[in-house]
Structure formats: structure tokens, C-alpha cells
## 1
Amino acid sequence: MTRFERLLLAILIAGAVLVGVNVIPAAGRWNATWKTYTDFGLALTTVRTDAGRTQLTVGLQLINLSSEPVHLIDLESQTSLNGETISGGGLRPENLVLSPGSRRIVTLVEPIYNTTQPALIAGLANRSRSWDVSGTIEIAIGGQSQTATVPFSGTLNQHGGG
């Protein structure tokens, strides 16, 4: 083996070691992010209209079952009543952090779309109501360097009187 070939081989080995040193921690961080993403949950708790039927108040419970703190960055939602989309809104909190193992209820106030007033009135008159809330939530994991966008969907069925 010539001196040039040995030098080239040494450079290749050093490059492989450097790549390996960087890939292993990166894969570990990705795995931790994925675990936190899968351990994050969201549940629809309440849907209420105001007296003037101009807005909805939607309660969502955020659940962090991971071992990492989760920062809520952005939440966008859309609400349907008996299959008709009637409102939408969002939440961008300043500093909402869910510590490991914690749960927190956040409240969204969504304006009711003017064009959906008839669907809202008909839906509220129905004894059985099915509220569907769907959207996305953007979270930052750990030290906020890694973010994930989590789609969600939930249904709350109400039965009974007006």
C-alpha cells in the first residue's frame, strides 16, 4: 500500500468516526422526540355557546405522559356541530409548559361563523348533539429546540334537553 493510499484510508476512517460520533446522538435525540410526541395526548372536555350565540368556548385537556417538558407553541382548531363546521380559532400562549406527567385544561374561544347561524340554531334545537373539534397543535420538546406538529380530533356527544 502506497503512502497516498494509507493517507486516504486514514482520512476515510477519521471521516467515518466523525460521522458516527454525530449520528448516534442525533438518532438518540430523534428517538426521544418521537417518544415524547407519542406520549402527548389531548382530550375534548367541553363545548359551550355564549348567550348571544356568537362564540363557542371549547375546553381541551392537554396530557403529557412523557418524561420531558412540553411547551405549547400554537393550537389551531375547527369545531363542527352535527357535521356542520360552525367555528374556528386558535391559541398562542406566551409560556405554557406541561411538566412531565402533567395535565392541563386550556380554553379556546372561537367566533361562530356568521354563515353558520342556521346550522347552529338547528343543532342546538336537536336533543342529541355531536360536537367535533379537530386541528393541529405545535409543541416544543425539552429545551424547545425540537418541535412537532400534532394533529388532533375529538368528539363530545351530548344527549338530553335543549
## 2
Amino acid sequence: MSIVSEFFCLPSRPTFSSTLNSFFDTPGLSLQAQVGVGFQREEKEGEKTDGSIVGWQVRYTQKFFNSDMEVFHNQTVYQNLEGRENVVAITETGVCYEFTDDIYFNIQLNYDVDSEPAVGANKENLTLQFGAGIEF
């Protein structure tokens, strides 16, 4: 797990951790989960702090309509155990549809929370994204 968060108005937030993985993977369905503990160095308001964290990640994808449409959900949540004992949650949920082998469209909802955000940052952020692409 490695997160550098300009989104939360922090100059840096590198995270290093060891994890236990659980995988379920077929051509049309994938579920991955990680649980782990780690170390984080964070700079907030000019002050650097080090601490340990515990967290998890979940990644889910499922394909429909001969694999032309894919539904996905990604979630990362971690809790600082020392210093600033905040909780951070980052989620992405969406659908990607391939019109042809080379043209696709996606819609994605992102929801992010930091229980103790940096000065000037929102505690919660909700974003709806639309995208389209062409593969060469």
C-alpha cells in the first residue's frame, strides 16, 4: 500500500506495509483483499510525523455481457495508531463499457474521507467522473 495524497492537501504521505492477501480470480470475477500493518511518514502544516498504521484494501471486478461491461469497486481504509490517530478511507466504484475492442466509456463515483484533514481540506469529498477512451 502506498499513498501520496495531494488530494488531502498534504505535501507527502508515503506508506509502507506488509500484508496478508486473499484472492478469488476467474475470467469474469475478481476479488482481492489485503489486511496489514505498516509505517507512515506524514507532513502536515510543516510538521513531519512518523507512525504505525493498520489498514485494508479490497478490489472487486465483475464482467458482464461477454466481458463488454465491467463493474468495479476499490476501497482502501487505514487507521493511524500513533500520533495523529486519524482514519482515512478512499473508495472508487464504477462501470466501464467497451463499445468496440478499441473504444470504451466509463463512469466512476469516488468518495474519500479523512477524519482529521489538513488545514484547508474537506473532511469528505465526493466526485463523479465520466471518461471515454480509444486504444491504439
## 3
Amino acid sequence: MKRRTFTLLASLIPAGCGRISLSTSQRQATHSVVLVDTTVSMKQFRPQMIGTFSKIAGGLRPGDSLELYAVTENPMAEPPIAIIATPRFDSAQATPALYLAKTGPDVTRQTKEAVEKLKVFLDTPPSSAAALIDGLEVSARSFRSYPAPAKRLYLLTDLQEDYGYAQLSKGNLNKKSTEQIIESIKTEGRLPDLNSVEAYVIGSRIHRESPRMVEDQLEHFWIELFTACGAHTTPDHFGPYLRRFPASVSEAN
């Protein structure tokens, strides 16, 4: 049977801010976590972070949810900057037009408020460090709180964690040191459970003065760490911008 798609009128929702796409076929809900690096090294990237977050939030579908967190010196002490939740569409309970009429304005409001909250947060003084590994634990707890079939993690960061023992921005990573750091994280019981999470990094390689070798080392370290956590990622998921928006589960299958 040919799949029909219903899209809320663009005049009702600004581009990139809460547009809902409906399908009469079943699709699995997705829970997304967005982690935003708030250190000085990311200050020049803040307009891109706002644009990227708007794109991610604007891609939510019925039944999806999203939590936005800041990665500071202690991200586990930080409440979410914003939460967005879209009601699930049930064709037995409502027509697409009725669903959109009831939920569209609320999703628009949630998304616009989330973008504004991010803008306000990014206008505050930058954090002195980014504990990215602890940020992954924040994500793991969020995914456990929202047991959606599909899980996506977006890190808006340059990956140069400079908090704690890792000192990843020093450019001293190699295969041996990468294995040692990950083993230490395991030994300390700090390895987050990101099983079946699809991970993306937006902001890597943004520093033109950073040597290619250092950026390659950082990318390799994080791919190995994500793999150890049970997450799925590839080098194509890393870059200074979101190359393509991930397909929905229904579209991918």
C-alpha cells in the first residue's frame, strides 16, 4: 500500500520550528538527547549550534521526544535546558487533520521556547570546562527515562574535553592511551550505557588551527568510546555541521 504523508501547513509553523510530518503507516517513536558544549572554545560556534538544534527539533515526528542539556564542569548537576514531547498519532482516534489542528500549535510553542531557552543559556558566561564523558551519563539516564524504540544522541561539541584526567585536548592520544582511558572509565564504573543509541557529533574539526592529527585522534577516541558504550556511530557522523538529517525509522525500513 502506498504510504501517504500529511504535513502541517508551512504557514502555521515557521521553517525549522516544529513542523510535524504524519504517516498512516506505523513508525517507531524516537527519543533524542542533545548535549551542548558551553565552553569558551565553542563560543564562535554558537550561531551554528542554535541552527543545528532548530533543525533537530524541527525534525520531530508524532510520538517523539527530546531533551536538551548543557555540558558544563558538572553536567550531572544541570537540569535540562528544555524538553519537547509530541503526542503520538493514532489513526483510530483522530484524522490527520484533527491531530494537526490539536497538537500543531503546542508543538510549535514547545519548539520555539526550546530554541529561545538555548539562546538565553548561550548568552550566559561560558563554563570553564566540559565534562563530556559525564554528559554521556546524563544522556544514558535520559534514555532510560524515555524507553523509546529508537534513540539518538547529538553532541554539539569540538570534542576537546579538558576536565578531569582525560585531557583530550592535549593531542596525546594514540591507540594505547585511548585503550587505557576507556579501560579506566570502565574500572571506575563511569562507562555510560548507550546501547542501541545512534550518536552524532556536530562541531568536530571546527578549529582551523587544530592539526589534522589531533582531530583524527579525537575522532578515533570518541568512536572507540561510543562503541564501548554500545552506541552506533561512524566517521560520517562527525563533522562541523549535520551533513544529513537522520531518516525516520519508518523511512529507513
## 4
Amino acid sequence: MPVNGQDILRIAFRAEYNGTDDMVNVFHAKITGSGSEADGDTMDAIHDWLVTIYGTFWNRVSNKVVAMDYEVYNITQDRPMGTEPIIGLGAGGSVGEELPTQTSPLIVFPTAVKKSVGKKFLPVTTVDNTTDGNILTANALADLAAMAVEWLTDKLITTLYLQGGNYNAILPRFAPWITALARTGIFTQRRRRLGKGD
């Protein structure tokens, strides 16, 4: 079954920390344009997109973190598209004392919809990428900003595009990201109630 223009996809990027703990980053993408794309072409484009996005910051990620795979679910068609390995990232490139694993560099993605803001917490970095354990160095921040730009850049499949944004299943509504803010600090991921937030 092909992917159609306007379909909403849920994409989950999975890495492992120290060979035991999963680090999963989930975001949504909309297929923009009209027509359709084969599942295989879509999965390949998503893989390349993820490698480009994460590759801009992967040298700042602790070498105890290893990129593993990605899973895609077509929300519009209510079906899984598959899980494939991530090829081309491997272990993070930063050797040294890592920060506590609950802490993360953060990118914020505002939308045109009030209170709909995407937040992407990244895998743990190391002390040498911060000035005091709390603020990213200028070079690390530049890499984080480059990552944000790649996430904002729509990805071509063959004729249609993947566009990042926030999806609200209750309304339902897809709100495209319109800009991105690479935060200078190190942040703690806060658990939230099921169904709250983007």
C-alpha cells in the first residue's frame, strides 16, 4: 500500500545507552503534495533524513550512545510501515565524562498554533561540550543549531516531501514547525501525563 499526499507519519528514532537503556525520540511528519509514494522510497528517505539530522550533532553525543533503528507508523492509514536499522551513525563521537543521562540538549519548534510547541530532547552529551556542565560551548551550540535547520528542511522522497510538525490526535490537527530554537542550556526531561503536550 503506498503512502499518499497529506498522510501523517509517526517516526521514532531509537538509540541505546551503554547497551541496555533505550533513548527514543518521536516526532511527526506530514507528506506534502498530491499523489503517492512507495513505502520503500518513503522509508529510505526517512532514513537519509534522520542520518542528516542527527549527523550534525552526533559528534557531541556520548560514545556510550549507539544509534540503532527507526520505526515508522502511518497514522492516517492506521498501519505500521516497518522498523529499519540506522546505518551511518554508529556510536556518538564524544569521548569523556558524560552528563547525567536524564539531561539533554534541547531544540524547541514553535508552530503557528497557540500552545503547540515541539520539544526535542537529544541523547546525552559530555562535560567537554559545556562550559560549566549547564551551558553548551559555542561550537556545540552551532552544531545544535545546524541540526535544527536540518529538521526544519522538508525532505524530498521522490516527488512528495516530508514536513516536520506537531500532531494532535484528538482534534485531529497537524501544525507544521515554522522555526526552531537551539537552546543554550542543558535541560531535564520531565515526564508528563498521557496525551498532554506535543
